[in-house]
Amino acid sequence: MSWITARRRHPAAGYAVVVLGLVLVGVVYAALAGHGASAAGVPPGASKQEIAQGRQLFAVTCASCHGVNAEGTARGPSLIGVGAAAVDFQVSTGRMPAKESGAQVPQKPPTLDAAQTRALADYIASLGGGPAIPSPAQVNAAGANAGLGQQIFVAECAQCHNFSGAGGALTYGKYAPDLTTVTPTQMYEAMLTGPQSMPFFSDTTLTPSEKRDLIRFITATRSEPNPGGFSLGRIGPVTEGLVGWLAGIGVLILAAMWITAKQRER
Amino acid sequence: MTEQGNQPEDARASAGGEHGRVTRRRVIGTPPPAEARRLLRDGGAPAQPAPPPKPRMLPADPANPERAKRAERIVATCFMISFVASIAFIASYVIFQVHSVDRVFRSNLGLGLSMTVAFLALGAGATVWVRNVMPKVEITEERKPLASPRPDREAFAEAFEEGTEASQFVKRPLIRRTLLAASTALAVAPIVLLRDLGPLPRTQLRHTAWKADSRLVVLGTNRPLKPAEFASPGGIITVIPEGTDNDLEALAKAAVLIIKFRPEELLAPTVMNWTVDGIVAYSKICTHVGCPAALYEHTTHHILCPCHQSTFDAQRGAKVLFGPAPRPLPQLPITVNADGYLVAQSDFHEPVGPTFWELG
Predict the structure, then answer these.
(1) CB–CB of A198 and B63 under 8 A?
(2) Nearest CA in chain A to B284
(3) What does A65-96 look like in DSSP terms, one character per residue?
(4) CA–CA distance from A99 to each of A56, A96, A110, B175 (Å)?
(5) pLDDT over 70 for what percent of chain B?
(6) In what helix (H) or strand (E) does residue B332 lie, and over which residues does it extend?
(7) How far is B126 from chain A (nearest CA, A)?
(8) What is the spatial distance between Cα A60 and Cα A168, in angstroms, rounded to a whole number?
(9) Quick one: CATH architecture of B206-359?
(10) How many domains is chain A built from?
(11) Which residues are registered as beta bridge partners of B219?
């Protein structure tokens, strides 16, 4: 004690206390977050501890819009019954937590890691019902029928997402996103949970095997040769061609005027 | 300006006739000196004094020889670039073989680029040539009158009259009238082809392949649906009447979008007797010009047509919210059959697809 008493009036004492406090907070937070990471391997069904972590995360990152108990507010819908798949889709594609409200929440790099996403998903699933996160085997499209996938795609998906999955516009600033980077799990979850404007395609309407066919088709089209350019969805560099043609015609007209212009004798 | 001084050399050579032919080195790209010139003259006529030279319209030499010299080099460079590019065109035809998308791309790039450079360099060279080497003198040339000279016109009229008389067209009414009859019939003949624009569609536009007890099967997989299998509110799926999956003409009219609502969400003027437990069926064919209207937003219940942005409210009988569509998407009456599958109660009660005048 005398050691502290002797030094408490030292000019650096105040800084030392602040630093100590920060370190303490950091250690406690890391301990909590670390527990989340260690629980990543726990299968859904989820321990009470994990759900508690999910609830804590929810209180920090989601509750301001979705309500303290996920009951929904004017800024965000209720999440009771949306299921783990919806949470995994929204968080793993970076759409949630949203930065701002608008016509549509855009995709961005995810802000929560896989363990945090899982904890959140388990918490929301614990509130009741909803589709679970599909297993890797469930979304494994190896050997699926891309031909049937294409038939389903053009009937159900292409109207919004474009015939090659390039996405397109909807009403009042909403849009269907492009499908060029979305993972098979995310595709499966999107069909199950109907994120934002997208309608639902439940497993009884489009069976899991048909969903795998779809996933196979979408992933297979990515490796097809693409003519490039600002392509409007694999049409090829038509836009550049139009601009080039119009600008080129203008330049040609100017050139023709210059060639035939009357010259002064020098 | 003496005669001797201005007479061109080759003219003097030709003046010597056959005996006076002088062998000279041909310059590539110029006419052969002696003979060519002589052909234009009086073909071997005896030597005569050359006519005095006409006053020149264009100066023979450029005003600024320094500038012309520089331009000459540029022009020659352009022409050489064009030459090389043309060779490159031939080379790329040989080098870049086709038979795959990537190879065709490379072949097109090679051919297109080389041909572009070839033409561009040629044009640029010609332009520099015209602007910097050729003289800049304005020349006025009178245009000839458009009408033929009077004697020509008189001669034509005379010949026409003579011809008419000689053909006996006026004197022989039998020939004249039969010819007129033949050409009139020939002119009328193609009109009968207009018949092929018909026959009128009669009631075809008012009916589709849907009939009572047609099961609703999913387009693509041909699986019939039970209401319990289509139970997520906000869900959609495209269905067709069972057994029409190979009949594209039937499908073009019969494609239907079914949408699942919570039963209390559906509002008038949706016909509630035509729905099953919140499942409502609308024609997928836009009533404007017949595009597949199926961009469905489950949050707003809007069905959007991708062609002209016609927007329909699926919650309220697909009434038109926006766009050029003149009437709601027709609603298909559906029910559940004894086996529990979704079936049509009947065909549509109004024509599907593009709206027409006689719709009534």
Answers:
(1) no
(2) A155
(3) HH-TTS---SSS---TTSHHHHHHHHHHTT-S
(4) 19, 8, 12, 92
(5) 86
(6) none
(7) 10
(8) 34
(9) 3-layer Sandwich (2.102)
(10) 3
(11) none
